[in-house]
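DM from R.C. (forwarded with permission)

"hey, sorry to bug you on a friday — could you get me a structure for this? deadline for the figure draft is monday and I only need the backbone to look sensible"
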Amino acid sequence: MKTPATPGSLAEKLIGTWSLRSREDYNAAGERRLEPSLGSDPIALLYFDREGNFAAQFMKRDRSSSPVEDAVSVLPNNSQARGGYDSYFGTYVVDESSGIASILILAALAQENVGQTYQRQIRFDRDILTLRLSTATTAGEPVTRTLKWQRVG
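My reply, with the result:
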């Protein structure tokens, strides 16, 4: 999946290295839901290059204080963490008209994620990237996840 990075395009703005600032899940009633496998404040890095490759790594901020809960099933439009850690990479393409990035998982910590394609709504505010996606809690409740990233490279 090669993403043409024309000047000023979403694809061009996406290129770089991003550090996670926040990750929040809300249900349809606007109530926040905590995701236990990575916790409420994980650390993460996200990379996108000009050739359409990406990589993501997430870790529960403190894995030493309590047992880390693994995801028990494959959740819609979302990868699975193991032991408080999640990592995957693959290719991406951006639909400039819809503002959606489609990411194809080529390799992942959780084998169930390999070959999956995930959709992410993209929005920029200067050097802040917001990715929004529909997924579900481990109990199956639909939620909207919003991830805010700061450009670091």
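R.C.: lifesaver. The chain has one helix and nine strands.
me: no worries. Helices lie at 10-14.
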